[in-house]
Amino acid sequence: MPTVNKIGTTRGRSRRTPATDPVLRRLRIALTVFFAVDGFLFAGWVVRIPAIKAQVGASAGQLGLALLGVSAGAVATMVLTGRLCRRFGSDRVTVATGIVMSLSIALPPRTHSALALGLVLLVFGVSYGGLNVAMNSAAVELVAALRRPVMSSFHAAYSCGSLVGAGLGGLLAPHLSPADHLLLLTALGLLTVGFAGRVLLAHPIGGQPEGVDTVAAAPGAGPRGTRSATLLVVVFGLIATCSSYGEGALAEWGPLHIQQDLHGGPGIAAAGYAAVAAAMTLGRLSGTALLERLGQTRVLVLGGLTAAGGMLLGALAPVIPLVILGFALTGIGLANSFPTAMARAGALTGPSGVAAASTFGYGGMLLGPPSIGFLTDAAGLPIALTTVAALAAVAAGIAYAVRNSGRPA
């Protein structure tokens, strides 16, 4: 059996192409599983937010503050995770944070005040943020080794996991308490992380492929080129922020909008988020083909505009079927914005660029929900959700503005 030196480089398999290499295939499957577990666990939490909100007796503003615990923990951890990945390896950090996330998801339904909820969500946010940066850093290295633009496929797994998690949550909501439901997810998460983690640890993902220097390969390499690449990483991070703001807002406030404003039951509320997850899954599964046919700029611009229109419909429509349709259109529009921004950042400066862009992007995903909470107290949830449309349009505008920067898109 070949011995792995670093990702994409093994002894005794020089005649194999990246697409047919068995080690790379196993690594891709294992990493795909981690993305799916991440989405599955997160969706399981979000579909029970209305029940947990009622359990702790929180107002919309108090819930927004509690959700800020997820944001604070995740964003703070993202800054640190890049260093941890460089020191210990993205594979080890991925496995460790996956275990912690599986354990911490059982904590929110065991709280009885908004303050206690915020504190346990801080722990949840630490694991969620660390896992997402570690996974994306590993994915960039694996994409480079495979030599194919498959970043969207990993994020499709996240969306697929979200779809399964939301669907399971809708089925279990009438029969299981949030505490029992999320404890079940803990067991499933630990079991899956254990199996997939063994593959990552057996075949370490470390460093970049031999002969690849992403900074040197970036246009205008050198001190000035490096500064230019860094600036572009920030720009793509802002695109990720705008698009992921909408994903986070839909995840944590979309079900509540259906249940609270349109008087749908918990199963219907879960179906609303499931529609988003299904749309994002389909969009990301077709992401590689869309990128090859349309180019990155068109995918980003058209996606942002589609999300903006869909969110206006989802936020302001007076009946549940139109709201769910709007949510689905928003999911389709947002599907490839985040992974495309991550891929561009990784192509410019390697895993460090992914870590930076991920901090921006997941910061938007996690800061969106508490922002929506504050706006809900001031103007109502439907109006607050229209900010998702505004930022999706901003993302489209930024993508168009930098269409000729870095490399052709």
UniProtKB/TrEMBL annotation:
GO terms for cellular component: plasma membrane. The keyword 4Fe-4S does not apply. Residues 27-407 form the Major facilitator superfamily (MFS) profile domain. The chain crosses the membrane at residues 29-47, 59-81, 93-109, 115-135, 156-176, 182-201, 229-246, 266-287, 299-329, 379-402. Gene3D superfamilies: MFS general substrate transporter like domains. Keywords: Membrane, Transmembrane, Transmembrane helix. InterPro entries: MFS, MFS_dom, MFS_trans_sf, MFS_Transporter. The keyword Acetylation does not apply. Its main location: membrane. CDD domains: MFS_MosC_like. It is found in: Cell membrane. It is a multi-pass membrane protein. One of its GO terms (molecular function) is transmembrane transporter activity. PANTHER family: BYPASS OF STOP CODON PROTEIN 6, INNER MEMBRANE PROTEIN YBJJ. This is Major Facilitator Superfamily protein. It comes from Actinacidiphila bryophytorum.
